[in-house]
Give the backbone structure.
Amino acid sequence: MRSDVNLVINYRSCNAKERINMIYMNYPTFEDIIKGYRQGLIYEITAQKSYNRKSNRGDLGVRVQASGIHSDITADQAIENVLIGDALDTGNLSEDFYIGTDDRNELAKKVQIYWMMQNEYALFTAQLKTMNLEDALIIRPYIIKEKSIGELAEDLHIEPESVRKKVYRIKKNWWHRYSRTSGKIYKSGGIK
């Protein structure tokens, strides 16, 4: 788990090539890392808002029932979690989204990391699915850590060094395709 946290912390400071390499090296678990980071953001935001609401009311931790007003705290928390998750996923972060949070700028940076990871992973996966069959038969099992270089060499009836060279060539070509596509996304403002 600690390595996942370090990956997320380092992700934003890396250049595009370093980020694509992070995805490449962690591909089998990267989607789960993104989901975990999203859940962590939702928890952090709801905890900040809840704490700040209670602080603003002067909550002493004692609940007093008001006359006839009933509130379903569990339902309210679930609705808030869904609304925050939807805002994160759609990018519709209005000023209301930040109300009750501690540090708007820090939170905006964390949300930006989430979007970058999510969008770059989606682009990476799309390109993995569209590569030619010969390359796909080599790189897909390798990248999801289903097969090693040795196992691929055995399956393809070639030397392990030949497989290593093919993996390198595929990765190099893939990086060129990815950088052209991601560059267009960054220039159009799709990812900041």
